[in-house]
């Protein structure tokens, strides 16, 4: 199994920084000079070439800087300099009690400086400069979350349908879940970002509430389940697309290859490292913050620490995947599955019943393929019990989990285990 060397390409989205030991030496006076918080050796030469570009940009921005009178008191001069910055300077990170409490609450290593944690709390909408925002760290953290979650789901449940995999991914590392994690960590959002704000607050420029409602309606219509319901009954070539319904061509293969890790459209997703959005929603800002913390842990502590952080905060959350299934015709799907696997046609048989002539009868029906019982279900009618028995049989097939499942990331590193290939199923039943 070839190991993925993420550290090689992770440096391409990060900027150089000064070492943590020399940070205090750099902040001898409260000026508007800003220092980087993350450094990678592979970008040392590139950073030297970018210094001239930054000097030119600073010369162009000199006209926009506020003019501070010399006779102003020192404490007012410092406040004026802080207000001129889009985000708090790194010198304030060591003085923030909220930031120190968050660092201790997450049990982060001392090798991860609070300056980097403060950068994780600055969204790209608050500070457009990617060298001082969490844009690059969140990009790396999102890829790590997607990789670890996908391998955990696919190796534990190798027979899951693709739509259920997308729903499970969204339940583990989706924006709603990461927003809830942000609240559990005790992180609060600031009303308006600025240099005078405590670095322990999550800083972002919030979007208008009307635009948020419109975007939420669009996301609900582009969900994997809604897209599959619209795309499967249509036949490509016979029903040409209309301007009102362009999602007919987004099938399972298109969602897997072209869309994001949640099966949603990638149009307008993500922030560029050069240009950031003017405003964002609270969910997206919280999601980027949690992803940035994951990226910071990976860069400062390594792959094993990032994997441990993922297990403690993401994979430890209980998720009942059995409730994510939605079958339209379970009896037909079960018949197709038995035919594909070479089993006898399923037959429903009454196992027991009570109160047939009463107002509340109960029937217990089992589905058999030859002499083997595939599933069992109860209901107030024979048809309801038969359908539930077919659903139970399908869930028993799709929710199969190997006892000694191993994920590919466990076979990487100096203390890696010997790789044991897992089950690769041929896929769900397509009727």
Q: What does this protein structure show overall?
A:
With 431 residues, the chain is mainly alpha-helical. The protein is 43% helix and 6% strand. It has helices at residues 6-10, 23-26, 44-61, 74-84, 97-105, 114-120, 135-156, 162-173, 175-184, 209-221, 224-231, 252-257, 282-301, 303-315, 330-340, 382-398, and strands at 347-354, 362-369, 372-379. A three-stranded antiparallel beta sheet has the order 1-2-3, with helices on one face. α8 (162-173) packs parallel to α9. The protein is elongated, with a radius of gyration of 27 Å. The chain starts with 5 loop residues before the first helix and ends in a 33-residue tail after the last helix. The model is unreliable at 16-32, 59-64 and 224-245 (pLDDT under 50).
Protein traits:
mainly alpha, 3 strands, three-stranded antiparallel β-sheet, elongated, 431 residues
Summarize the structure.
With 431 residues, this protein is mainly alpha-helical. Helix content is 43%, strand content 6%.
SSE layout:
Layout: H1 6-10, H2 23-26, H3 44-61, H4 74-84, H5 97-105, H6 114-120, H7 135-156, H8 162-173, H9 175-184, H10 209-221, H11 224-231, H12 252-257, H13 282-301, H14 303-315, H15 330-340, E1 347-354, E2 362-369, E3 372-379, H16 382-398
Antiparallel strand pairs: 1-2, 2-3
Helix pairs in contact: 7-8, 7-13, 8-9, 9-13, 13-14, 15-16
Distance between the termini: 35 Å
Low-pLDDT segments, ≥5 res: 16-32, 59-64, 224-245
Shape: elongated
What would the average pLDDT be, to the nearest integer? 77
- Structural class estimated from helices and strands: mainly alpha
Strand and helix order? HHHHHHHHHHHHHHHEEEH
Main pleated sheet: 3 strands, antiparallel
User: How many β-strands, per DSSP?
Assistant: 3
Radius of gyration: 27 Å
Helix percent reads 40-55%
> Strands across the major sheet, in which order?
1-2-3
Q: Count the helices. How many?
A: 16
> Strand content of the residues, in percent?
5-15%
């Amino acid at each position: 199994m070839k190991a993925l060397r993420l550290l090689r390409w992770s440096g391409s989205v990060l900027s150089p920084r000064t070492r943590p030991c020399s940070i205090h030496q750099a902040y001898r006076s409260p000026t508007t000079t800003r220092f980087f918080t993350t450094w990678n050796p592979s970008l040392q030469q590139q950073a030297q070439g970018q210094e001239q570009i930054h000097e030119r940009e600073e010369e162009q921005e000199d006209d926009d800087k506020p003019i501070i009178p010399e006779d102003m008191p020192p404490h007012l001069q410092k406040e004026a300099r802080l207000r001129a910055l889009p985000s708090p300077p790194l010198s304030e990170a060591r003085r923030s009690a909220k930031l120190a409490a968050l660092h201790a609450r997450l049990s982060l290593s001392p090798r991860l400086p609070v300056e980097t944690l403060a950068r994780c709390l600055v969204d790209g909408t608050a500070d457009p400069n990617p060298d001082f925002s969490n844009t690059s760290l969140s990009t790396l953290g999102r890829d790590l979350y997607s990789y670890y979650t996908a391998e955990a789901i696919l190796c534990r449940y190798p027979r899951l349908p693709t739509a259920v995999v997308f729903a499970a991914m969204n339940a583990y590392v989706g924006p709603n879940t990461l927003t809830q994690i942000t609240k559990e960590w005790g992180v609060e959002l600031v009303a308006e970002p600025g240099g005078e704000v405590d670095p322990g607050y999550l800083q972002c420029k919030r979007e208008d509430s009307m635009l948020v409602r419109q975007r939420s309606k669009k996301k609900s219509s582009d969900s994997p389940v809604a897209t599959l319901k619209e795309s499967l009954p249509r036949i490509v070539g016979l029903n040409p697309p209309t301007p009102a319904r362009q999602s007919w061509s987004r099938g399972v293969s298109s969602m897997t290859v072209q869309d994001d890790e949640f099966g949603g459209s990638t149009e307008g997703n993500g922030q560029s490292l050069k240009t950031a959005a003017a405003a964002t929603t609270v969910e997206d800002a919280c999601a980027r913050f949690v992803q940035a913390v994951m990226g910071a842990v990976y860069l400062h502590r390594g792959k094993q620490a990032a994997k441990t952080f993922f297990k403690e905060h993401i994979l430890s959350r209980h998720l009942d995947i059995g409730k994510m299934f939605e079958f339209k015709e379970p009896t037909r799907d079960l018949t197709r599955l038995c035919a594909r696997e070479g089993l006898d046609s399923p037959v429903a048989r009454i196992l027991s019943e009570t109160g047939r002539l009463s107002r509340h009868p109960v029937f217990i029906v089992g589905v058999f393929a030859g002499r083997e019982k595939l599933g069992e279900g109860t209901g107030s009618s024979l048809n309801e019990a038969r359908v539930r028995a077919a659903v139970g049989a399908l869930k028993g097939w799709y929710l199969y989990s190997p006892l000694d499942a191993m994920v590919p990331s466990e076979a990487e590193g100096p203390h890696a285990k010997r790789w044991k290939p897992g089950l690769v199923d041929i896929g769900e039943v397509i009727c």
